[in-house]
Design brief:
about 190 residues, mainly alpha, Recoverin, domain 1, 9 helices, binds 2-acetamido-2-deoxy-beta-D-glucopyranose, EF_Hand_1_Ca_BS, calcium ion binding, calcium
C-alpha cells in the first residue's frame, strides 16, 4: 500500500474542500473499481490494527452505517473523510490507553479507559467485555477494531438509557419492545 499511496500522492488531482488530504489519498487507493464509492470489502483493506491484521467485518459494517449518508451500503469521499478523522481520534485514544504498547487493550486498561471516558463500570464488567471481544484462540485483549466497536456501542446504549433515566437514578423501567428498539438502534444505527 505504501508505494501505491506514493503514486497516488504524485498524481493527486484537486482535493475537494473539507476533505482530509490523507483520506483523499487512501480513498483513491482503496476505491479500486473507481466507482467513487467504497464498500465494506474495500473499506476492510483501508483499516488495520496495530499488528496489520485487517479490521473485523462487524466494525467495518458499523462504520459504513455510521458514515453512509446515502443509505446505500457504501461511502463516498466525504463520508470516508469524516470516518478518517473519527478513526484518528479513536486510534490516539487506543494508543494512549494501551500502556504496555502490546497492540491490545487488557481488562485493566479497558476499565481505566472507560472510567476516564466517564463510564462507571466494574472491573468484572470490563473483563467480560474483553472476553467477549477478544479474537478466539489468541490471548485475551481488545484490538483497535473491537475497541472502536465496544466504545461506540456503549456510547449508543448509554444514550438510550440516559434518555429514559430522566430522574438520573441509575435505574430505568423499560418494556419489552422499548428494550428491543434500544438494542436494534444501538446495533444498526450507531452514532459517532
Ligand atoms: C494480530 O493479533 C490477533 C490478536 O492477538 C491475532 O489473532 C492475529 O493472528 C494477529 N495477526 C497478525 C497478522 O499478526
Amino acid at each position: 500500500f505504501t508505494s501505491l499511496l506514493l503514486m497516488n500522492f504524485f498524481s493527486a488531482g484537486n482535493i475537494p474542500p473539507g476533505v482530509n488530504q490523507e483520506a483523499y489519498q487512501w480513498f483513491q487507493t482503496v476505491d479500486t473499481d473507481h466507482s467513487g464509492f467504497i464498500n465494506v470489502k474495500e473499506l476492510k483493506q483501508a483499516l488495520v490494527n496495530s499488528n496489520w491484521s485487517s479490521f473485523n467485518d462487524e466494525t467495518c459494517l458499523m462504520m459504513i452505517n455510521m458514515f453512509d449518508k446515502t443509505r446505500s451500503g457504501r461511502m463516498d469521499l466525504f463520508g470516508f473523510s469524516a470516518l478518517w478523522e473519527f478513526m484518528q481520534r479513536w486510534r490516539a485514544l487506543f494508543q494512549h490507553y494501551d500502556r504496555d504498547r502490546s497492540g491490545c487493550i487488557s481488562g485493566t486498561e479497558l476499565q481505566q479507559a472507560l472510567a476516564q471516558m466517564g463510564y462507571n463500570l466494574s472491573p468484572q464488567f470490563s473483563e467480560t467485555l474483553v472476553r467477549r471481544f477478544s479474537v478466539p484462540g489468541s490471548r485475551p485483549g481488545i484490538q483497535l477494531d473491537r475497541f472502536i466497536q465496544v466504545c461506540t456501542q456503549l456510547q449508543t446504549m448509554t444514550q438510550v438509557f440516559r434518555e429514559r433515566d430522566t430522574a438520573m437514578t441509575g435505574n430505568i423501567r423499560i418494556n419489552y419492545e422499548d428494550f428491543l428498539s434500544g438494542v436494534i438502534f444501538s446495533v444498526f444505527n450507531a452514532l459517532p
